[in-house]
């Protein structure tokens, strides 16, 4: 079966391999999207009003190249990309100390960022603070098949992190208790998986069958 990329909306004979231990069926040869990008865009198109043409204030943390133009064009002048280190982003931002007012954003996209941040709970509280009560936040992280999140603040050296967490720049391995941290930080949480959006054939066609496709974690401000 040929593949379809929902990010660039083009077909390909196959998706390429990607990863430190390369996995097949991952990388769109046209736009560079991975499984997680395609799952996220499938969700945003099917279940949210992001593409209804209305202007929105959106905070896109650590902007993925294959998504930033799509989000910027959907939101108009209200789009803001931000990053701690990447100077190509529109604003330099430490998400544990966000210099924006409470209730500033309709949409926050912060995908595969929190696992890099030593004080991830502070970042969660900050994003909850700046999210509008009517808004939603995408807070995806890689979740391992373990019950409890594992972290040891004493593990800081890249080689040690690579050995313990499987990535030189990760501060922890999240487990299935990940949503609890979001709840403790002020969010209500909804979890969406590929089968919630697409049938089995579409999951294969869109290159979402790998385990590392992951889930989508959607946070809304509790009590909103
Ligand atoms: Zn693509």
What's the layout of helices and strands?
Layout: E1 3-5, E2 10-12, E3 16-18, E4 23-27, H1 35-47, E5 58-61, H2 65-75, E6 79-83, E7 91-92, E8 105-110, H3 120-130, E9 131-138, H4 158-165, H5 178-184, E10 187-192, H6 194-197, H7 200-205, E11 216-221
Parallel strand pairs: 5-6, 5-8, 6-7, 8-9
Antiparallel strand pairs: 1-2, 3-4, 9-11, 10-11
Bound molecules: zinc ion.
Zinc ion binds at residues 5, 7-8, 10, 28, 30-31, 33.
Q: Would you kindly provide a written description of the structure presented here, covering whatever features stand out?
A:
With 224 residues, this protein is an alpha/beta fold. The chain has one domain: Vaccinia Virus protein VP39 (Rossmann fold). Helices cover 27% and strands 23% of the residues. The chain has seven helices and eleven strands. The strands form three sheets. A seven-stranded mixed β-sheet has the order 7-6-5-8-9-11-10. The chain has a two-stranded antiparallel ribbon with strand order 1-2. Strands 3-4 form a two-stranded antiparallel ribbon. The radius of gyration is 17 Å and the shape is globular. The structure holds zinc ion.
Give unreliable regions as ranges: none
Distance between the termini: 44 Å
CATH class: Alpha Beta
- CATH-derived topology: Rossmann fold
> If strands are numbered along the chain, what order do they take across the biggest sheet?
7-6-5-8-9-11-10
**Number of DSSP strand runs:** 11
Q: What's the helix-strand series?
A: EEEEHEHEEEHEHHEHHE
Coarse shape: globular
The distinct ligands, each listed once, are: zinc ion
Number of helices: 7
How much helix, percentage-wise, in residues?
25-40%
